[in-house]
Fold this protein.
Amino acid sequence: MAKQQFKKSRRRKPTVEHQPMLFNTSNYIWMAAGVGLILLGFLVMYLESEVRGFWSLYVSPLVVLAGFGVVAYSIMKKRSDLDPDTKTEPSMAE
């Protein structure tokens, strides 16, 4: 009886389609600036330590709201480097 030889089959790894990232670097910079404004507003509110003080009653809530607005802007901001026709990243071969 002859020995049977089995060929090793090479399994290909499944190809992964590269999808563009949701946020760009500028989005993260805007988001960090917004979080910084929020923290600054709470810090000002804490440092005055008066309930009816001008800074803690009027200025710091506006700074906190501005921080939330900047974070919302950074989330809604569209990427400018995407190809407008296909909504994908431009290829590196070009």
